[in-house]
Amino acid sequence: MSTDLDLAPAGFVRAIEELPLVDHHVHGAVAHDLSRGAFEELITESDRPVPEWMTQFDSQVGYAVLRHCAPVLGLEPHCPPEEYLARRARLGAEEVNRLLLGASGVAHYLVETGYRGDEILGPSGMAEVTGSPADEIVRLETVAEQVAAGGCGAATFAQAFAEALWERTAQARGLKTVAAYRHGLDLDPEPPGRAEVTEAAGRWLGSGGRLSDPVLLRHLIWTGIERGLPLQFHTGLGDPDLDLRRADPLLLRGLVERAEPSGVPLVLLHCYPFQRHAGFLAQAYPNVFFDVGLGVTYSGARGVALVAESLEVAPFAKILFSSDGWGPAELHHLGAVLWRRAMARVLGRFVVEGEWSAAQAMRVAAMVGADNARRVYGLGAREEGTR
């Protein structure tokens, strides 16, 4: 039985497979060896231990590892998990990273460093392993918590945060907020007043802990918009620390409209299961961009559906590629290979059915895979070269 890939124009699938990508939202790969338990806990968004009666390999992402990562490590596709993990252990983390990251075809990484950054490779480490440029995305909440840890009063918090943010982002390509985790995206879209910020800072600094006050989160976001770099928002799926009901990107509509005159790109990350909501926002507002990274990885063989839905109503210049890989290099590799396969299937069918030309399909693949990110983040033309 023929497939969409079989029916695609000659050379089209290969051209997408060889397309140099810009991974506009990614974290570092883990540089140490992993036990089976540690590996399985890192290929799920759950933060709970894996029950003894099941394995995370029995999932879309687990099967994708065995299908697409095993051959890169010199094994047959669909090999048993035990064989895969034994091979991984023999090679060692350094070689596994070199093989899987190298096979992903990513030509430029934008590495977000705010989550457990001391446990994974930073931008320089990713660049060293892959030979590809790697720039930083700075998390707003992490900078604010570092300011608080350094000691400051409530009245001086706003100024101290602004100064720290400008200094911290001197070489950064963008910013990110995890307000969806800390409170939810149902925030008042207006910037808070100075007195509100001081009062909220006093409460937070007095109690300690991570920053979750909605007034301060709004202040961080608006300070980030003032900074002028592209601002990424976590939306959609995540670990149980997140209330998915309050991570719908449609909740940001008021903020999107309020921020529109600034011209700052607002980039919606992941979006699953709200990819159609994100597509609407990207169509309606010139300052909104989005990706379906992470969702494609965790949906594995079903990632084609996510990619297809992301292409329904959004202008193609508003969609970006990301893997959101964190930890095992398998997640970085799958983010790229599953996206490529999904794009080849979806766009190839458009061509076969006569809806698009092959040139149009390839143009869209290049836009989403790299060109849009180069424009949004100011990466310039194709200085990265080819794979």
From TrEMBL:
InterPro entries: Amidohydro-rel (IPR006680), Metal_Hydrolase (IPR032466). Gene3D superfamilies: Metal-dependent hydrolases (3.20.20.140). This is Amidohydrolase family protein. Residues 149-379 form the Amidohydrolase-related domain. It comes from the Bacteria.
